[in-house]
Amino acid sequence: MRLKGKRILITAAGQGMGRASAIAAAAQGAHVIATDRDGALLDGLSEKGIETFALDVTDPTAIRACGEKVGSLDGLFNCAGIVHHGGILDLSDEDWAFSLDVNLTSMMRLTRACLPGMIERAAQTGTASILNMSSMASSIKGFPNRCAYGATKAAVLGLTKSIAADFVAQGIRCNALCPGTVDTPSLRGRIVGAADPVQAEKDFVARQPMGRLATVDDITPMVVYLLSDESRFVSGQGLLVDGGVTI
Ligand code: NAD
By CB distance 3.0 to 4.6 Å, which of 44, 56, 174, 246 could disulfide with 37? Predict the structure, then answer.
């Protein structure tokens, strides 16, 4: 019950790490509000005591409404993000703008909408925690064909440090999570969509010295830790869970 009594909002909770985090946080006693652009993907979560509603993080009106609807929060996990494949010479202005919108601007907007309620909450409890999904890949360590992805995920680290610095005196902590390669539906899609899927999977595995892909269960303990009071002296950090890629 490491999150008992905490009210936590999670984006992109329909599948992958967002969904696993919602389930892990609820199992630790949190009241979890799980959202996703695709509301159908949230099926099955309400049976676990999780509140759900559809939220597209690229919709500024919906984000403002979400901030009003959820009220005071102890935790916000900005998990939504997409991978754009390609280098700078293949990159259209539209794909660049869309990556920025989903991976970065959404976090700024949702945090801006939720922060006043979190500051109120931290005034009562001493702390509230924001967690932003960054990545090891191409923000900490460069990889080919991740130009827009790497730029946005690196910018998440800057946004995280800036929020951490501005609100540290008000009890708000803000950290970023930097996973390695995690076996999720979108990763499976990237493998299946490759010219040689068998080789693509081998390449994803080979880049991690621990010799395997992460599972979502390798990542959720760090999510729970960062949303819990156990991390009360941790703020402004990008926490790597990457199977040794950056040793
Ligand atoms: P995923 O990519 O399989 O699923 C992502 C979820 O995000 C889906 O349910 C989708 O409906 C939702 N989503 C997409 N656009 C959205 C929007 N505009 N508004 C709300 N929801 C939206 O899950 P994943 O691989 O766990 O990725 C989650 C996050 O983790 C992303 O930010 C991703 O960049 C990051 N990440 C993934 C890996 C990896 O290897 N899988 C590694 C590092 C970081």
Answer: 56
